[in-house]
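Escalated from tier 1: S-adenosyl-L-homocysteine holo job.
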Amino acid sequence: MIGLISATAAGAVARDRLAAAWPGRTRVYDGPVREAVGRAFAECEQLVCFLATGAVVRLVAPLLAGKASDPGVVCVDEAQRHAVSLLGGHGGGANELALAVSGVLGCAPVITTATDATDVPGLDTLGWPVEGATAAVTRAVLDGDPVTLVADAVWPLPPLPANVAPADTAAVPGTDAAVEGGRAPGADDARRTAGDTERAGAGAGGGLAEAAAAAAVPVGGLPGAMAATVAAGVLAEAASAAAGSGEGRVPAGPAVLRVTDRLVGIGDREVVLRPPSLVVGVGASRGARADEVSGLIEEALADAGLSVRSVAALATVDAKADEAGIVEAAARLGVPLETYTAGELARIDVPNPSGAPLAAVGTPSVAEAAALAGGGELLVPKRKSAPGGRAAMATCAVVRRRPRGRLAVVGLGPGARDLLTPRAREEIRRASVLVGLDQYVDQIRDLLRPGTRVLESGLGAEEERARTAVAEARAGHAVALIGSGDAGVYAMASPALAEASDDIDVVGVPGVTAALAAAAILGAPLGHDHVSISLSDLHTPWEVIERRVRAAAEADIVVTFYNPRSRGRDWQLPKALSILAEHREPTTPVGVVRNASRPDGTSRLTTLAALDPATVDMMTVVVVGNTAAREIAGRMVTPRGYRWQTEGS
Ligand code: SAH
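Tier 2 regenerated the structure:
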């Protein structure tokens, strides 16, 4: 709940606007402000105070208890010019709240948290549990001090700046890898990939991948991107092996960022991120108590030297989906309970099958099989609870799952920055590896966070781009594959997903496709049934294209032509238009939009008879109306429906 506090009439107006915009999420605290702030501070997760920052500082100062428990506080001035994130920028969500409040009230967000201001993701915003000296390590990351990254595996982390580098390979600014620029790697040259890191990163020096690549022995036969990836994996493995044998102690001095599910001693200048790597399979007799289940899980993890904070899920057989002790144990850990049918579990090979669960629920193993059902490595074989005196009622087993990489397929929109969606922007900044056509990368280069590894290539390298993006995600990275307009429309989404297996997470971000951008400029040409047809016969036989144009012509559907004409393909557009002209009047309106939403964009409204194909190129879409489409006041309008139009008029 967000508590709203105001003192004056102007403040109350703004307060009520916010309350109206967010019904059910806000509560107004009336009365004397000191008391109102006090109550809201105690009762709400967040506060918006329509008061001067000075007043709010004095009011909340005596109430402050600590970063972990204090609510996020945002101040909005009486003139609604600024929304200031005052307290709890990350933990309390005040930075995001300031942005959201600004969206509603039209004021400017003021965010002073260093990590946001300098464009480095805060360690506490990665979404994983963090232990240790968060402030000191964050400071080191921001100040450009060397920070040693020690990761058990490649996880889809956001980009980290160049001064954060794997153990033993501290990034050295100015190495040849760091200064080399260049385009996407060709054959087996890991250093070229590293060079791209440098090009992408605003800061100096290398980066995680670069340091890895610099130390890598090129892997024969793999593309450079893969070589860098393999290198990073090898380093991570080496680091983890060393950590496992107790020899992984990082020399005193540099700050350490460790990513591990293991219980480790944490140094003064060290932070441990807990990745969601562990799955605990659980079996329980009817009526088993939550304390017994939870106690067993905690003991099993502790004995194996594993952190309970890395548990991503509990897993069991579906017959136990409602078993109160298991459900409660999952709730205490704050993780979901995955369930599998007895048939699914019975098919999984386990080290310790037994007769009891076979008789009770139809599978020789619940704990081990459920833990292993999603793949991974069995770290703790089945063990039973030891309730003391009574018969054991719970079993558990622990599996470490392979990290799942993340592939975001992101549409950038037609060109204008304000037609790039906020979600697209977020995904681009979330990714540590960006894959795309060079001209699209140029469109968003300024948005990239320092440390982003950019793998760009020229026209025609679609399949290689798709393969590279998927390979990087399979290696565990957070990858964004970008395309103009919508990335699924005549673009990268299909070749990428045709390559992708189910061991990565895929996120699609829709973009404004050229047809929609052009339509908005022309008027309302897509008001009734419409179709897009690409006239490029490079990958599609012309007979197929012609058949589709003919079908659209006969069905009287509005047509948007993508890829209408290039230097080497000049007869297809006239041919397509002539097919449409067999079914539509010469006066049928035709919109021609070039570079929609870009600074040099143009648009023309003409007719089927008057269109000069020579004025059309590859930066253009051509929208041909149906038989009901009209030019009205210089705009192209396709009526919503033939009948609707008559009835409505
Ligand atoms: N994924 C893109 C389409 C890629 S196909 C999208 O969803 O928009 C490339 C074709 O799209 C170009 O030949 C052109 O016909 C069209 N196109 C892309 N951007 C455009 C723009 N800003 N203005 C006009 N046409 C555009």
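The pocket of S-adenosyl-L-homocysteine is lined by residues 414-415, 483-486, 489-491, 513-514, 517-518, 562-564, 593-598, 618-621 (CB under 6 Å).
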